[in-house]
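Example 3.
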Amino acid sequence: MIAAYPLTTLATLAIVLLTFIFSFRAGKSRASSGVSAPAMAGDDTFERATRVHMNTLEQMVLFVPVLWIFAMLVSDLFAGIAAVVWLVGRVMYSQAYMTDPSKRTAGFMLGILALLITFVWSIVMVVMGMMAG
Amino acid sequence: MIAAYPLTTLATLAIVLLTFIFSFRAGKSRASSGVSAPAMAGDDTFERATRVHMNTLEQMVLFVPVLWIFAMLVSDLFAGIAAVVWLVGRVMYSQAYMTDPSKRTAGFMLGILALLITFVWSIVMVVMGMMAG
Amino acid sequence: MIAAYPLTTLATLAIVLLTFIFSFRAGKSRASSGVSAPAMAGDDTFERATRVHMNTLEQMVLFVPVLWIFAMLVSDLFAGIAAVVWLVGRVMYSQAYMTDPSKRTAGFMLGILALLITFVWSIVMVVMGMMAG
């Protein structure tokens, strides 16, 4: 079944990889900052890296199911494009957050845009499908 | 494939939407409370909104995969009903948490009930399927 | 569709169950420690139990989609084996973290190993599939 969705499959793996990289950076920041587990605060760089990771995790948990629903109801190609927009947004978000948290909005909104477009389009497709029978 | 599961698809989108609304509220509480990123504490309303969001995220990550397994092994209709119970529980949980965190148990348990019923029923179906074939 | 993947289905349910058990323990630690919601810090056992839960959640959100991609591209049996490795790693991680957080690395790395092997193998399969077709 998955063979019909190569771009969505690759996109999912890329989303997992980016989130993994963010978690890895947060782990490294913990080590270099000297904040011992289980503490989650006490060093600004560690806290920023942790927030980028957690916020990306929060977003991917919403985006991945919607992306697959969208791929199946619309197309693998459009899902791949939406995922690229999402990934670019997340990289921008991360870069901004690490240098100046107040500038993180643009990247955040790009990810939300990818989520909302795939979400609304999917809802329309499901409802049209149910009405058609 | 997804066309055979319209209610589970709609339910998944509704779960994503509710979690998104909770994350949006947490973000707004951060702005109105004046707690600057990356700090996660310092204002009671912001902390409650954050906890509702995070707890819902924690639960949806468990519930969504189980819901789809259940839909495929049992039925789309029953999965839709379980999701409605879950969603009602989460809205109750949120309302209670924002007004008085000590009253959040009833809504929490409703969500857990939906999770446990779909979980146990799915296990039974998988094991019966393996024994039959 | 899911009937073709009984081991991956059972593995997913086991991953959900383990994460649920960790969340349950964190909730119980909150109660016995006397840390009132929405506070997330103030008692070492509660903080450790919370970190084990959250870290497992962070890992399962990456592992479950990769596991299903892997099962569909490689085999249900190998996905089941990878999931057992992941689960053992997570139990080791939990045991170590609760007694001495500095010893949590071995269990953590076992989970990461299961993730990386299924991840890389899946990438190879998708790319080979795209080149072939």
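Helices of chain C lie at 6-33, 44-73, 76-99, 105-132. Chain C has four helices and no strands.
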